[in-house]
Amino acid sequence: MAAMTPTPAPEGGASPAASSATAPTAGSDPTAATDPTAATDPTAATDPTAGTAAGPAPAGRTGQPDRQRDRQEPAPRAPRRLRARPRVWRGAVLALAGAYFLLPLLASFVFTVHVPGQGISFEAYTQLLGAEGFTESLLLSLGLAAATIAASLLLAVPALVAVRIGSPRLRPVVEVMCMMPLVVPPIALVTGITTVLRWGPEHLSRTPLYQTFLAVQNPDFPLVLVLAYTVLALPFVYRSLDAGLRAVDVPTLVEAARSCGASWPYVVLRVILPNLRAALAGAAFLTLALVLGEFTIASLLGFQPFAVWIVSISGAHARMSVAVSVLSLLITWLLLLLLSRAGTAPATVAPGSSRNSRTSRIPRTFRKES
To answer: Is the pLDDT of residue 111 over 80?
Structure first.
């Protein structure tokens, strides 16, 4: 064996034990002795990852997670729970609305059946069916309502569909024109109609238009009321149809049907109108209510539909007039219910097709086979 040479003593009188403390040991980090930050880094002694197999930590880093960054990043907030609306308020609002509509109707019904000194009597309702002018005025109002609904829809549906497909920029113009009857009072409208009806026979007596002026004023079925009611109902019809057209992708449906060989009448009748069933029912709903309750124009023009007849008998037969009002409300509600059910009827879907698919709205005859 080779003789061990003694290690020379360091300068300054340092002991061998002190020099051995600074010498690197086997298996330790060889750069620890030369690292200038080893003596100044206060975390070097407590670093649990120092000297492990992963290798030495880079200079200037301690290897521990950055606590300041963790403090800066806020913890994810828990989703806020939406407060459940109390059902008590809903019930209270519905109760108040029901009382607002039903209490006057109930009071009117009690007035028609309760006779002071006699008790309960349904004489007002039994005499109603035999009253003079009841059936004629009711049928006249229903006929005027049907004609007004047909005229307003025939006027509004093609115009709105054409604007929706071909000229979307004209929509504001059409909207302003359809909303104009809301600005003009009915009394001003009937004054203008009266002036025209008086001027026509005087100046057109020797022309074929003279008979036209007489025909539109026929008391059995006054067409002049249909024209006036159509103008009054136009804003409501427009709003209902415009909402329905916005809910349906009309250009895509028309393009698909036309590419399959459908004609324009078929596209309108079998593709567009079935998708506007709810909008058409809403327009008819509002028009019917308007015609059955209109009084000003019919009274000033000298005709006697249902609303005018009710007012005419109110002076002589108070209970009967109130009974007629109650009955008219029930008839109107029944007709409106039928119209609403017709508008919300589910559309037929071909077997194997999806109800939510856009192609299911196109008639099955004109669909291309895949």
So the answer is: yes
Residue of higher predicted confidence among 174 and 128: 174
Residue keyed to tokens 């415009």: 242
Q: What are phi and psi of 114, to 5 degrees?
A: -100, 115
Q: Which two tokens stand for residue 232?
A: 């009054």
Q: d(Cα 237, Cα 339) in Å, to the nearest integer?
A: 14
Specify whether the CB–CB gap between 190 and 228 falls below 8 A. yes
In the chain, helix, strand, coil percent, each to 5? Answer: 60, 0, 40
CA distances from 268 to 190, 191, 205, 229, 350 (A): 35, 38, 42, 25, 20
Instruction: Report the distance separating Cα 131 and Cα 139, nearest Å.
Output: 14
pTM of the model: 0.64
* CA angle centred on 328, ends 325 and 330, rounded to 5°: 115
Query: For 5, which DSSP code?
Result: P
- The number of beta carbons lying within 10 Å of the beta carbon of residue 29 is 17
CA 253 to chain centroid: 21
**Axis crossing angle, helix 223-246 with helix 186-203, rounded to the nearest 10:** 130
